[in-house]
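I am sending you the entry underneath: sequence plus fold tokens. Let me know what the token row says about the fold:
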Amino acid sequence: MSFWKKMLGIGPRENEESAEPKMLAEDEYKGFEIRAMEMKSGSEYQLCGEIEKTVDGEVRMKQFIRADKLSSAEEVAKFSLKKARQIIDERGDDVFDSWI
């Protein structure tokens, strides 16, 4: 960012979080693509992820956010992928047709 943009307060500040979520990890599980996404909550990370699958030629995606908070991005990546696998085991393709 240029000097003038910083001086005038244009654009994101150094301490502000990016509006674009960052992918922490990804995996394939039972035909689903699963991703752990970064979601900061103060100094901690909140459990957050995406589940995606192509169904009848259409890409379907479901996001999930849980109340669990962890202290590191590595921990939240591990547990977000674990949670996505659990959701898939419990709901299968129905995950796209309901609230989770």
User: Anything to note?
Assistant: The radius of gyration is 17 Å. The domain at 21-93 is CATH 3.30.160.350 (Double Stranded RNA Binding Domain).
